[in-house]
């Protein structure tokens, strides 16, 4: 029976999350009264979130009890695959967008994670690596998708300027340098703004979780500082990588713009 104690604890712990559905019910009622038509989407969203989190909870429970580090890599690659697909969907007009996003996210987060492990910031165990990797992959996904989409859209808007630069002998990289910088700045701004205001406007999730779990505020801020640093590092590397991988898709071997890339919407 002891083997099932964790399940009993889980079901007991679900009482509060179920009680919190009252807040969602309030939102549904407000949506109905305001004729927003979002009631169905709200119910679907909360059901999907409940189902996904429940499943991942059981999966993590299983992985945490394993001694084989292969489970860590499997979980990490799964997150990267989903993130690459999602970011690629945002930049759907970029050729091979899902592949580019996936490789960029993998490179940025893997290098960052490797440095954190080598520097002994985090031990290479499922309990640390999987949550940390999830935060990095999630942020890198958002930044990479925005970077790729913005780069393609900017080049499309300024096609004449880019073609003029190419005609004057500029390489594709030189001709689109301003567009690349603009897309990177726009994509990374939310991450940097969040770092500037962290603790002043809201307490981030990692810090809040530790405090509510009984840790001291000083311990919580130490972890949050590490989290902010790794998010900036991983997001920056992933977004820059995505621009380098996107360039060949925008130009022909003769250094001309790929017309079909910028005519489809």
Describe the fold and architecture.
Helices cover 79% and strands 0% of the residues. Helix 6 (97-118) runs antiparallel to helix 12 (217-250). The protein is globular, with a radius of gyration of 22 Å. The protein has 13 helices and no strands. The chain has 265 residues and is mainly α. The relative contact order is 0.10.
Cα Rg: 22 Å
Number of strands: 0
State the end-to-end distance: 59 Å
Shape: globular
Question: Which structural class best describes the helix and strand composition?
Answer: mainly alpha
Strand-residue proportion: under 5%
Helix content: over 70%
User: How is the quaternary structure best described?
Assistant: single chain
* pLDDT < 50 stretches: none
Compressed to H and E, one letter per element, the order equals: HHHHHHHHHHHHH
Concise structural overview:
The protein has 265 residues and is mainly alpha-helical.
Features:
globular
Describe the secondary-structure layout:
Layout: H1 5-13, H2 15-19, H3 21-33, H4 39-64, H5 70-90, H6 97-118, H7 126-157, H8 159-167, H9 172-175, H10 177-197, H11 205-212, H12 217-250, H13 259-263
Helix pairs in contact: 3-4, 5-6, 5-7, 6-7, 6-12, 7-10, 7-12, 10-12, 11-12
